[in-house]
Amino acid sequence: MRKKFTTTLDEELIKKIKLRAIQEDTDVSKLLEKLIQEYLYEKTEKE
């Protein structure tokens, strides 16, 4: 199940992630979800 999540980020960071999403032909939410999953996986593997 997907759920809406709102947060605040640095303006320049938002611009960069939007550009990267366009370059990768995806949307920001999918890109952020992938990055968060990778981050959590790495942290779990190190514990």
Automatic annotation (TrEMBL):
Protein name (Swiss-Prot/TrEMBL): Ribbon-helix-helix protein, CopG family
SUPFAM superfamilies: Ribbon-helix-helix
Organism encoding this protein: Alkalihalobacterium chitinilyticum
Pfam family, one: RHH_1
Domain of life the protein comes from: Bacteria
Coiled coil: none
Chain ranges of the Ribbon-helix-helix protein CopG domain: 5-42
